[in-house]
Write a structure and sequence with these properties.
about 110 residues; about 0% strand
Amino acid sequence: MKDMIAYCGLNCEKCEAYIATVNDDQALREKTAKLWAEFNNAPILPEHINCQGCRVDGVKTVFCDSLCHIRQCALKKDVTTCGDCPDLEKCQIVGEIISNNSEALKNLKG
């Protein structure tokens, strides 16, 4: 479980991309791609919805792999999660996630 907590504190096991990947669920990929494309106003296709978690080896969505500023910062700082970063409380990069998701903050501090 701990490996499935993302750098930002979100639980990858609850992510639709992760669930679709581990269950090879094409219908969920299609539904998630449509929702994410609308939400992000971006061309996201079902084949983009493959992820095994941002902190473990394996496939990742394009966003998680190379566009997520939180992941890039954590990798650069060589921290296990943002919870290990001394700047967590004042960080604007992860601040939006933890201010809107108490579970993420709990995961980072837990």
